[in-house]
Amino acid sequence: MTLQQLKYADRVAATGSISEAARKLFVSQPTLTEAVRTLEEELRIAIFNRSAKGVTVTREGEEFLASARQILDDAARIQEKYTGKAVRRPQFAVSCQHYAFAVEAFMEVVRECGAESYDFTLRETVTSEIIDDVARLRSEIGVMYLSRRNERALAKILKKEDLSFEELFVSRPHVFLGRRHPLAKKKLGVTPKELDDYPFISFEQGVENALYFAEEVMPAIDRKKNIRVRDRATMTNLILGLNGYTVASGALSRELNGPNVVAVPLKMDDFIRVGLVRRSGISPSAAGAKFVRAIKSSAARR
Question: 5, 37, 187, 285: least CB-packed within 10 angstroms?
Answer without folding.
Answer: 187
